[in-house]
Structures are given as C-alpha cells and as structure tokens.
Amino acid sequence: MSLELDIRLPLARFTLEVGTRLDGASVAVMGRSGSGKTSLLEVLAGLRRGARGRVVLDGRVLLDSVARSDVPPEQRRMGYVPQDALLFPHLTAEQNVRYGVRPGRASRVDEAVEILELAPLLRRYPATLSGGEKQRVALARALATDPALLLLDEPLAALDVALKERVLPYLLRVRDEARVPMLYVTHQLGEARVLAREALLLDQGQVRAAGPAAEVLGAAARGLLAGEGDGEENILEGVLERPDDGGLRLRMQGGLSLWVPDSPALAPGTRAAYAVPAADILLSIQPLTGVSARNVMTGTVVNVESVATGEDAATVDVAGVRWVVWLTSASVRELGVVPGARVSLAVKTSACRRLR
Asked: What positions does the domain ABC transporter occupy (predicted)?
C-alpha cells in the first residue's frame, strides 16, 4: 500500500492536519480520545466533508481540493468498520455480508466467511449475535466488498476482555490471509504492535510521529496514551512445538522459546500468537534459579522509559526478541536497571494468553 496524505480539516476544538506517506500493509492510528483519529478515517472514506488537500491511494487520487476532485464514498473502495458494527437488524448475517458486494466479486463473500469462520452464524439475525460475533460479521461485510483499504475504527473497543481475545485472532487472519491493507485505530499498544507494521500517532489533530511501528510505539506513544487502554502487553508470535518430555512451547525468532499453557487441540507446527502483560514479568539483576516460573531467560536492557508517575518501562533484548517490563521507578534505581545491564526475566506459563 502507498497512501499519501496532505489534508487539513477544521474541527470544533482544533484543525486536523495530517501530512505524511504510509507504505505499510497495516498501519496503527493512535492518540488520545478526541485527537482526530475517527475524523481522519472519515476523510479517507469520503464521509467527512470540508477537508482540503490531497489523498492518494496507490496512485489513485481520491481527493484533490486544488483540482476540485473528490471521489464519492461509494467509488473509493474503502471497507469501513466502526466501533458499533451497525449491522442491518432485518437482515441475516449472510445478507449483511452480501450487502454491497460488487458485481463479479461474489467469491469474496466465501473468502470472508471462511477467514472469519462465519458459516455457523449465516442464518442468524444480529439480535441473536454476541458483540464479538457482530464485529466478525461487520469485518466480513467490509472484506466482501473487495476494498482497496480497510478502515477499522476501534473495532474491539466495545468488547470485554474475553470477547477481545476471541476477535483479535480474526484480525490477524484478515491481515495475513486476506492481504488487504488496513488502517487500525486503537488505544491499545499491544494490539497495535501485533497488528501493525507502521504507526501514526496523533495529538490534538497534529502528527506527533509516523513510521515503523517498532520506532513509533515507544516512549512517545506511552506518554500520550497514559491513562487510556488496559495496560501494555508483549505480543509474541511463532510456531508451536511439543518437546519429547511433554508440554507446549512457542518457538520464536532467534531460537527463543516460551512455555505456554497446554491444550490438546493445538498441533505442532501451528502458527500462534500470545500476549504477556508487561506488569506480569519478573526482572532480576542476578541469575534466577530455583523459581517456579518455567520461562527464565537472560537479556540486555536496551532502554528505560517513564510510563507514569512512579512507574518505568524497561525494554530488554533476549535473543533478538524485545520484551517490555514494567517496574516501579524505585526498583529501577535500587537494582541499577540501565541500558547495557544484563538481567534475567521470569515469566509464568499462566501469564501467557493465547491470541491465535
């Protein structure tokens, strides 16, 4: 995807001004509530009037106020999924998915149904679906229109933790299997890190940072999002394996492995992703022995950043995998946790929550 943005839109409290180029297949759009994230998506979808400037997607000009060119929403090929699924209540799930399908693109319906595993839900009406099921149908409806770009406006925000865990794996499948570029609005750093390759950070309508997700979703994002979201998580992806002595491990890059909760339904060779809260990791400046945590590893502190008053986040590199660990500022001082320090980390198997 190549998305060129040079837009200006007056809003009630500030003017949204975004000038950047995004080239990743998945982009996280982050910022505090009211920072202009939804307005940006509405401009891209053609739903917000009054924007000036240019929007160019893969060489196709969608908006050029100087040339007085403004492609209508129905011709922009944007798949828009808001927080509220906004399904048609009088239509079945299947009828909702098929709504708006372009001529000759009926195969996209079958693909969307398969990726989002909707076959058991197709004959049901929205009133009988859970929040997570409604969001899956809304995602399928957007995919089935064969969009050039998916615009996802906090699709998990209205769901409780359990439902988020069920829907996030489907978003990963959409990213990896449907191969449709997406802009994903969220407050959750963990979600952003696992879904996005690039990130755009907005603050009062202005671009605070834009670029590779690994660079943008650090100290600046933490500071800007302080007090929002459910806490920071490490998202780890890899392939499952079953050692001869039993149990289940996630094999990651660099040969690092992580013991995870066992389940007979998980077969070796399956790609999987797990979340580990940054606050649930134990850090020691001494080698750890004789501890109950099954995952013990040694790494090097890359940096230490303030998260909030009295709290710091240490980034630790272990065999090429970056772990974020939350500590009190007092512990950081007392232990001497500084860049370059060798430390040990301990992670309980039970702290690893499967996402897919």
From this structure: 7-229
Specify whether 149 is located in the same domain as 287.
no
CB 214 within 8 A of CB 320: no
Task: Provide the domain limits for residue 281.
Answer: 233-354
Q: Smallest Cα–Cα separation from 182: which of 307, 277, 41?
A: 41
DSSP string over 199-224 = EEEEETTEEEEEEEHHHHTTHHHHHH
pLDDT of residue 246: 84
The CATH number covering residue 254 comes to 2.40.50.100
Q: Where would I find the H helices in 232-277?
A: none
CB 235 within 8 A of CB 193: yes
Q: What angle do CA 153, 55, 71 make, to 5 degrees?
A: 90
pTM for the model stands at: 0.78
| Number of domains the chain is built from | 2
Q: Which residue has the tokens 């920071």?
A: 232
Residues 292 and 314: their CA atoms lie apart, in Å, by: 23
Cα gap 235→227, rounded to integer Å: 20
The whole-angstrom separation of Cα 266 and Cα 262 is 8
Cβ proximity of 37 and 20 under 8 Å:
no
- Cα–Cα distance for residue pair 7/5, rounded to 1 Å: 6
Using the Cα atoms of residue 131, residue 135, residue 137 and residue 141 in order, give the sign of their dihedral.
Answer: positive
Enumerate the β-bridge partners of residue 55: 5, 63
